[in-house]
Amino acid sequence: MLQSRWWSFGFRSAVMLYFIVLIVLPILGIYGQSLSGGWTVFVDNVTEPLAWKAVSLTVQMALIATVINIAVGTMSAWVLIRYRFPGRRLLNSLVDLPFALPTAVAGLMVLLLLGPNSWVGQWAERLGFTILFHQPAIVIAMIFVTFPFVIRAVQPLLEEMEASEEEAAYTLGATKAKTFWRVILPNMLPGILSGAMLAFSRALAEFGAVVLVAGNIPGKTLIASVYIFGEIESDNSTGAAAVSVLLLTLSFLILWFVNYVQMRRKGS
């Protein structure tokens, strides 16, 4: 009995130590570094025009990518769960490909897809505009790396949904559209919200896929993660930490919201 308690205590202690060393201490280090020069220096670094534009652009692009992922991801989850067709299992396994690929490889794929030698790039040039090294390329890269989040969050809810709920709605005379909006969508909504928040948080931090396709023009296509990298290269770790704190705090709030939604769903 005593040996079992010591083993349990040692196991919990090892997990907590692992958590503290790999997560808590680095986070505290970033906050400490950002405030190492004092509150005035922190505010100056955060409100520096290029930094503020980079953060603002990142939030805008991440929001656009998230909205697209909500629509496409929800439809994709619906098709993968509700329909049976040749290649469905292969398509379902490919959903997780962005998780497995290094982000630099994802960026290279987008670069080759949208480059001037690709049919997409040539088609865009004939229409009088370019995608690569402009904001649309940033959105596409963010969509690619965050694509699985909404799908994987919605799929379990569709699988758990009782068919009797839909049948009851049809029996009471509801149309398919009304049944979807009144019965199906409310059941999917927690997954859509949590998947969207995770996708948004992931898009905020994306670096490898975006840096290859954005052009990194200050004030136009320079996003926050690339700006942070540039500040580190310029030996301005305090400025890099200050912008990192903004993204980190926003991610904390998003994760708290996701956890709140999940707890409400479990409690209901």
Describe what is shown at a glance.
With 268 residues, the protein is mostly helical. It contains 13 helices and no strands. The mean pLDDT is 85.
Give the CA-based shape: globular
Mean pLDDT: 85
Fraction of residues in helices?
A: over 70%
Give the N-to-C terminal Cα separation: 38 Å
Structure class: mainly alpha
Work out the helix count.
13
Query: How is the main sheet built?
Result: none
Strand content: under 5%
Task: Give Rg in angstroms.
Answer: 22 Å
Task: Report the uncertain regions.
Answer: none
Total DSSP E strands = 0
> Helices and strands, in N-to-C order?
HHHHHHHHHHHHH
Kindly describe this structure.
By secondary structure, the protein is mostly helical. It is 81% helix and 0% strand. It contains 13 helices and no strands. The chain has helices spanning 2-34, 39-47, 49-82, 88-94, 97-100, 103-114, 119-126, 135-160, 163-171, 176-205, 208-211, 224-233, 237-267. Helix 1 (2-34) packs across helix 13 (237-267). The protein is globular, with a radius of gyration of 22 Å. It starts with a helix and ends with a helix.
Highlighted features:
268 residues, mainly alpha, 13 helices, 0% strand, globular
